Amino acid sequence: MTDIGLALGGGGARGIAHIHVLAAFDELGLKPVRIVGSSIGAIVGAGYCAGISAREIGDFMVKSFAHRRDLAVKLWQTRPPSFRQFLDDGGFRIGQLNVERIVASFLPDAVPKTFDSLTIPLGVMATDYYRRLECELDSGEIVSALGASAALPAIFRPVRREGRVLVDGGIYNPLPYDRLKGICDLVVAVDVNGGPEGDPAVVPATVEAMIGSSQLMMQSVIDLKVRTDPPDILVRPRVSPYKVLDFLRAAEILRATEPVKDNVKRALENAIEARRLGVTTRAFVEVIGTSPDAAAHESSAVLR
């Protein structure tokens, strides 16, 4: 039996595409022996590690972000309970949204409070701000770990956990498949970081430019890792047309990235069969185009 490890990268709303990779596992009757994730990858991974199917995660995402008004109400409900707490959280200063409250509000009820209650082991990547290093959180309370992994500077305040100040896991390790090397027979990595897209004649707003610059930095880290020590299967859905905060387009993102599922299934089947025969392969999986209508132009899992 092949032990498969799955790494889910960060990318905000683009990470909704992770669901199709999880669906490929479900349809093949496979389960990763461990999942590691950064930011949205950690959040989606937590749902799957809690025993929620890919289909259920997708339905939950679409329902949660179907209507702007309902989303605004839910975000309003995450406000501090008192003015004193509001001031303690940073008041009106930019980048002081409490990510732990937001994550807790949008997690499915089936996600347990602690890591030891998960059905699949989960590693959550965060960045230790003052120690200047990456850290993998895999024990204790889950919400603070997920909040730390998603605490993108300029939007969310850092998270204090176990005496450390933690920020977005993507700062140091946006696609943490290296954490699975040596402990899994087959390592699958899903890169949804993408990059900023738009009209060069338009100057992005300040926050958008900060987020886009972070994406460029993270992509340079990912590209270097892939060149020097690639995973066995690298999956890159075409997500660049969508912005990091495009959660209200959840249903559209799911439809647009659906073709990647069958490619992942083929890549997994090929890799497992190759290992049974004692052959080492690497696969790059990408869908050309951004909608099911463009699936005729998609590449199949090309072995390198």
Automatic annotation (TrEMBL):
<keyword id="KW-0378">Hydrolase</keyword>
<feature type="active site" description="Proton acceptor">
    <location>
        <position position="168"/>
    </location>
</feature>
<dbReference type="InterPro" id="IPR050301">
    <property type="entry name" value="NTE"/>
</dbReference>
<protein>
    <submittedName>
        <fullName>Patatin-like phospholipase family protein</fullName>
    </submittedName>
</protein>
<dbReference type="InterPro" id="IPR002641">
    <property type="entry name" value="PNPLA_dom"/>
</dbReference>
<dbReference type="InterPro" id="IPR016035">
    <property type="entry name" value="Acyl_Trfase/lysoPLipase"/>
</dbReference>
<feature type="short sequence motif" description="GXGXXG">
    <location>
        <begin position="10"/>
        <end position="15"/>
    </location>
</feature>
<dbReference type="Pfam" id="PF01734">
    <property type="entry name" value="Patatin"/>
</dbReference>
<feature type="domain" description="PNPLA">
    <location>
        <begin position="6"/>
        <end position="181"/>
    </location>
</feature>
<feature type="short sequence motif" description="DGA/G">
    <location>
        <begin position="168"/>
        <end position="170"/>
    </location>
</feature>
<dbReference type="GO" id="GO:0016042">
    <property type="term" value="P:lipid catabolic process"/>
</dbReference>
<keyword id="KW-0443">Lipid metabolism</keyword>
<keyword id="KW-0442">Lipid degradation</keyword>
<dbReference type="GO" id="GO:0016787">
    <property type="term" value="F:hydrolase activity"/>
</dbReference>
<feature type="active site" description="Nucleophile">
    <location>
        <position position="39"/>
    </location>
</feature>
<feature type="short sequence motif" description="GXSXG">
    <location>
        <begin position="37"/>
        <end position="41"/>
    </location>
</feature>
